[in-house]
Write a structure and sequence with these properties.
Strands 1, 4, 5, 6, 8, 9, 10 and 11 form an 8-stranded mixed beta sheet that branches. The longest helix has 11 residues. With 288 residues, the chain is α/β, with parallel strands linked by helices. The chain folds into 2 domains: 207 residues, Spore Coat Polysaccharide Biosynthesis Protein SpsA, Chain A; 67 residues, no CATH class. It has 8 helices and 16 strands.
C-alpha cells in the first residue's frame, strides 16, 4: 500500500487475548485460522467486499506472528503497538491519514456487515461516531441501550431512564469522523471515555445479520465444527491448525501450529503446539 493512501478501514487487533487463555501463548487471537484464513483476514475481506480498499490494523501480542499470518493479504498495513492503546487509542495510528468517516472493525468477530447501509445512516445523522447495533440475541455479551435521541447511554445510565431503547448488541463495527478522531488524547484511551465529549454520536440499529465472536477457546472449537468441518474442524470436537497433523484420539483439544501427536495418543482438554522442535502441551482450561 502506498504510504500516501488514505486509510478507509481499520481493524482493532491489538488486545491481550486474555479470554483465549493458553491459546494466546502461541498466537494472537486474530491469527488463529478458519478455512485456512486468519480471523483478521475474514474481517479484512468483509471490508474489501464493501469497497473499503486501504486497510490497516494494530498489533500488540506476538505482533510479528500476526504480521506473518497476513503476509499473503495485500494492501493491509500493520501498525506495531508496543504500548497497548485501548479500544479508542489504537486509532491514533491513522489519525490524520484516514478518510471521513473511518470504518472500524473488531478483529475477533466474523460477520456479514452491511457497511454501505451503515455509512448512509451515519452520514444522514451527521454523527461524529456511530456504532452498528442489532437486537440483543441473549448470551454473555454486553447490553447496549440508547436514549430517546438514539445516543448510546453510558454504563449505569440505562437504569435511570424510563424511555431508553434496547437492549442491543454492539457488533464490533463503528464509523469515526475526523472530528471524533481529533478528540482522542495522546496515549491509551477507551471509546467509553470519549462519549461525553462528543456532540453527536449514535447507535445505528439494523435487523440481525450473520455474526459471531471468536473470543474464547470454546468459541474457536465451535466455529471450527460449524464453519470448517473439513479443515480445522476435521477431528470432531477439536480444532486442527493448518500446519498441524490430525491424529490421535482426542476430545476438546486444540492442535496448534506444528502439532504432531503419535497416532495412539489419547488426550482431552489440551492445547498442543510445536516450539523449538519440541511438542508442547498446555491444559485447556474453560474460558467463558
Amino acid at each position: 500500500m502506498p504510504t500516501s493512501a488514505m486509510i478507509d478501514g481499520f481493524i482493532l487487533a491489538a488486545g491481550l487475548g486474555t479470554r483465549m487463555g493458553p491459546l494466546s501463548v502461541v498466537l494472537p487471537k486474530p491469527a488463529w485460522t478458519l478455512r485456512g484464513k486468519p480471523l483478521l483476514q475474514w474481517g479484512a475481506e468483509s471490508m474489501r467486499s464493501a469497497g473499503l480498499e486501504h486497510l490497516a490494523c494494530n498489533a500488540h501480542l506476538h505482533p510479528q506472528k500476526l504480521k506473518n499470518a497476513m503476509a499473503g493479504f495485500a494492501g493491509l498495513q500493520v501498525f506495531m503497538e508496543p504500548l497497548l492503546l485501548g479500544s479508542a487509542g489504537g486509532l491514533l495510528h491513522v489519525r490524520g491519514q484516514s478518510t471521513d468517516p473511518l470504518a472500524v472493525w473488531n478483529g475477533d468477530a466474523l460477520a456479514e456487515v452491511p457497511w454501505e447501509a451503515f455509512r448512509t445512516a451515519h452520514i444522514s445523522r451527521g454523527a461524529d461516531l456511530s456504532w452498528l447495533l442489532i437486537p440483543h440475541p441473549g448470551g454473555p455479551w454486553t447490553q447496549v441501550w440508547l436514549d430517546e435521541q438514539g445516543r448510546v447511554l453510558l454504563s449505569g445510565l440505562a437504569s435511570q431512564s424510563l424511555r431508553c431503547q434496547g437492549p442491543f448488541l454492539f457488533t464490533g463495527a463503528s464509523l469515526w469522523s475526523s472530528r471524533a478522531l481529533a478528540l482522542l488524547p495522546d496515549g491509551p484511551s477507551q471509546t467509553g471515555d470519549l462519549i461525553p465529549r462528543l456532540a453527536h454520536h449514535a447507535g445505528v440499529v439494523v435487523p440481525p445479520f450473520p455474526w459471531r465472536e471468536i473470543g474464547t477457546p470454546d468459541a474457536l472449537l465451535a466455529a471450527a465444527q460449524e464453519i470448517a468441518s473439513d479443515q480445522e474442524g476435521r477431528i470432531p470436537g477439536c480444532y486442527v491448525h493448518p500446519s498441524a497433523v490430525p491424529q490421535g484420539q482426542l476430545h476438546r483439544c486444540v492442535l496448534g501450529p506444528g502439532a504432531r501427536l503419535h497416532p495412539a495418543m489419547v488426550d482431552h482438554d489440551a492445547l498442543w503446539f510445536e516450539e523449538s522442535g519440541h511438542q508442547v502441551r498446555l491444559g485447556l482450561s474453560r474460558y467463558d
